[in-house]
Amino acid sequence: MSTTAVAPTTGVNYLNAQYGIRSWLLTTDHKRIALLYLGSVTFFFLIGGAAAVLMRLHLIEPQGALLEPATYNKMFSMHGIIMVFFFLIPSIPAVMGNFLVPMMVGARDLAFPRLNLLSWYVYIVGGLFTLYAVVAGGVDTGWTFYTPLSTTYANGNVMAAALGVFITGFSSILTGLNFVVTIHKMRAPGLTWFRLPLFLWAIYATSIIMILGTPVLAITLLLVALERTFHVGIFDPALGGDPILFQHLFWFYSHPAVYIMILPSMGVVSELVTCFSRKRIFGYSFVAFSSVAIAVISFLVWGHHMFVSGQSVYAGLVFSALSFAVAIPSAIKVFNWTATLYKGSVSYQAPMLYALGFIGLFTMGGLTGLFLASLATDIHLHDTYFVIAHFHYIMVGGALMGYLGGLHFWWPKMTGRLYPDGWARFSALVIFIGFNLTFFPQYILGYLGMPRRYAVYPEEFQVLNVMSSAGASILAVGYLIPLVYFIWSIRYGPPAGPNPWGAKGLEWETPSPPPTENFEEVPVVEEEAYAYGEKEAHVV
Amino acid sequence: MWFGFPLRPEQASTIAQGIDHLYYFLTAMDLFFTGIIFLTIFYFAIRYRRRKKDETPAQIEGSLPLEVAWTAIPLVLVVVTFVWSSSLFIRNARPPTAATEVFVIGKQWMWQLQHPEGVREIDELHVPLGRPIKLTMTSEDVIHDFFIPAFRVKKDVVPGQYSTLWFQATKPGSYHFFCGQYCGVSHALMRGEVIVMQPQDYERWLSGSKKAGTMADAGARLYEQYACITCHGTGKGPPFVNLYGSQVKLQDGSTVVADDAYLRESILVPSAKIVAGYEPIMPTFKGQLSEEQILQILAYIKSLGAAERKAGQE
Amino acid sequence: MSEVRSAALAEQFEDLDQQHEASSLGMWVFLATEIMFFGGLFAGYSVYRGLYFPGFDAGSALLNVKVGALNTALLLCSSLTMALGVRAATLGKRRELATFLVLTILLGLTFVGIKLGVEWHHDYLEHLAPGINFAYEGPNARAVELFFVFYFFMTGVHALHMVVGVSILAVLLWMTFRGRFGPERYNPVEMAGLYWHFVDIIWIFLYPLLYLIGAHH
Q1: CA A56 to chain centre
Q2: Residue B39's domain spans which residues?
Q3: Angle, to 10 degrees, between the axis of helix A198-230 and the axis of helix A98-105?
Q4: Subunits adjacent to chain C (3 or more Cβ pairs under 8 Å)
């Protein structure tokens, strides 16, 4: 680490450069926009989480303990819509990506700062539409908006919710566009592609998916709105449409969207594993290209959501083979992270615990994906709790663990404060245990045949459901602990110093919190990423 | 069963065991790799824990042989799984030719099941042991999905289309079936029981149940009632005898197989495919015939003889 | 910063070259999302065209090929004037730039005028607007309706893009009069030009897809 050109933390930084609401709402500083996003995604996470808690409580009894079936349906729809579109998709890209992309490439800001602010407002407007849909009676189509249920039969506020998702899509398009241009055109002198931190490779791959996938979802939702408003048959067979076409269009975006959620987490984990074992990443180019490979393949596997929809056998075979192919780059990543620990200097600070938790849970989630890529077993497992367990292992065990790990890692940089490491490690442990207790039983439930989205269920499934609900309550506590100590640390946390972890990377060359312009001088990069070997090697 | 705690549903169909074997293989593979990753991480994390605050470990760039190994091994494993799974899937997808056909109509939020002999059931399906049963299914409103965990079978039930599913039960008993595709408010209540009976019990049950005449008889009545007979019985329209499953020549020179989907389309959208040599004079029966009545007419047409070609294939 | 920063240079960039490259890459990336947006529509259209060809054929026959051709010609001309405008901007010829911008705007407006005022109006009077007054009698009424759903939606989204384009050109025109462009700074004109050409190209695909299916009688 270089302590040479670092100003003391008491100096002017991006947080205290200006005061007042206006200075936040009209800011074009990528770091402030990152914090705006942090606040908003946390808000949506709490709403989506509350819905999940209610659902799990309800399912303690086979007849349903808490809610009317109609209310339960609204709960899981809201949980899905909010968690997917308003938490997971923006979480790492919009919070950490916004904060870190310019700093990691050594720039003063993103290429289009005003567009960046616009993307946050677009996100908020989309969020308001969705919240309106929830408050004004709810939506009960599930987050997938399957037709003709959504276009003809559902009574809820489908239009408002679909519009909310449609609008928010443009926010991720703008964010992705900004990242792609910034990574291409604004890298500091000497920062070649193969010197980039792997977080940027992951963010780059994610941005490509956002740019190319989101518009297809947008047009699909517009068509749904058109059909619902004018009763013209685009997807409803009673009016001459084809309901399966909707599924093709929807999953063409929504399967790649899964990788929008997991790829950034993979990037975060690459940063954490190297820092806390003081090792260069094992097989840099393999990890980097596997991100790109995942992004490319992600566009070719959507049909595996339709193995039982009556799709032709040949289409099924092709989609199955391509879905199996995703396993290869994912496996490469996991093996390389593990190998990075070899002969390292491993410390167990909180971010590292989250990263190791990620590797374990992602491995389990990824491997169970094979059951669903495989045609014969997917016939039985499709639309059961097995699917729920699988994608929660990826989305919560994977994406969310990575998000929390990253937040713990860069929190000192963002706020200039340290949080209590003991509590943070404790919460990582609680989350890991609670998570497994919640979702592992769901694998078994799924194989036993319990369908998803059931407000009531046959009695023989009760024991496993109760286990899952018990786990959910532990998990909920696990998520609340960080919320408390993070807020505490803003006021009472000890000052962090520029580089509390001894990490490599341009963002650690700045004071914490960084000044508005990030770097006083444009940095010149003279070493590979993760050069932990050269002790005091630093960037001039 | 595992200490009296079920880890898999009952195996009650001819295909269940094959699926379970693949499932066990995948589970073993999962446990193996998860075990390796967990143990290696634990071992490395403890063996190479940080001992001094400022130690700098030797740097390792990577290793090409290792990369090749952990690309190739998973690749081989997924190829094996893919081949195994796909061949099983293809084998399971094809219904035996001699299957008894049962018609299924899904609607919000109930299942209506219709035996060829005319017995109609709601949310309950009686089937004989050891005989292949083919379900021909459609929906009156949204997409549903017919799922029998004990048989390891599932298929979406899509409005405006026929989908098929087949099974052969191997164990008498009562097994759940569910709607697998979320279909609105009472989705979770859209379930029922398959009751597998010894063939002689089944025959007794069948003869003891109230019948509205066979499906084909009902179709024959509709054939007269809707005056189909005035054209299709006089040569003004194509005749129905030996029509099902045959190759039909169309006006534009192409040919189609007269399967369920074709017949259904010809009833609802007669102008879509005009048979060569006939005038496009047939009116549409959309809105006049229910899904059930269309199925009855199909049963009637099938009862008039079917061409040699196996119909209803994918 | 030792050297003096140009007023045209935004603070996050190092030099004008970087700024120029960034904004044109940004534009291209944006156009990629636009292609995917229209791509979804084209995919849906193609599926139904394959399923219900006779109906789509019949629907297409109800459109006026000649008016469509006139509109195509107008748009192609507007692409030419736009390209000349960009050239004028790079050369710093303000008067010429203003002239070509005005011409492009006029051509664009005429296109939208014909599209909405003549074609859509006519279709509406013929009771061909699905969901509003659709009343087509014939063997493939449902399919014809579906064709018109796609027709109105695709041409509508395209017309919306035209309106956005015209508005952007209007702003550029105003900026030209204020003397904001010179040989140093013509980036916005170039970007708007890219967008304008893109919207034209979309029409080049829409016209045969919608108007020229099968034979017209």
Answers
A1: 22
A2: 16-48+63-93
A3: 140
A4: A, B
